[in-house]
Design brief:
Blueprint (H helix, E strand, L loop, with lengths): L4 H38 L2 E21 L4 E15 L4 E6 L1 H6 L5 E7 L2 E7 L2
Antiparallel strand pairs: 1-2, 1-4, 2-3, 4-5
Length: about 120
């Protein structure tokens, strides 16, 4: 009788469970993305008076290593919070160039569709 043979009997089951879990997370993530995209496409385009009340960036670090080198990169996702006349606030994802042009306290006309930012026209 060999010691450790139980591990080799359990490993295939453990491998399948981990694989199915990772595949499930991947499918759910894709499903949520498609659902949000579809919801945004079916939402009306709205233009409302709004004020820029906050800005934030989220920095993600990515590390990849291969046999001969390590590659590292970062990416930043930008968000702006707008407050509409009713007092409600909404945080929308914006491009880096839009993020740079908006200043907290700016007042103007916000155009959006669902959770999709379409533009902001500052009042003069």
């Amino acid at each position: 009788m060999m010691m450790g043979s139980g591990f080799f009997n359990v490993f295939p089951i453990f491998f399948v469970i981990v694989f199915v879990f990772i595949l499930g997370v991947f499918i759910v993530t894709i499903g949520k993305g498609i659902g949000e995209w579809n919801k945004n496409n079916h939402s009306p385009r709205l233009t409302v008076n709004a004020t820029v009340v906050a800005k934030r960036g989220h920095v993600s670090h990515h590390h990849n290593s291969s046999n001969s080198s390590i590659h590292s990169s970062t990416s930043t996702t930008y968000y702006v919070t707008f407050q509409v006349e009713s007092g409600d606030r909404m945080e929308l994802h914006v491009s880096g160039s839009e993020f740079g042009m908006l200043v907290e306290g700016d007042v103007g006309r916000l155009t959006f569709q669902g959770t999709r930012y379409l533009g902001f026209e500052r009042e003069r």
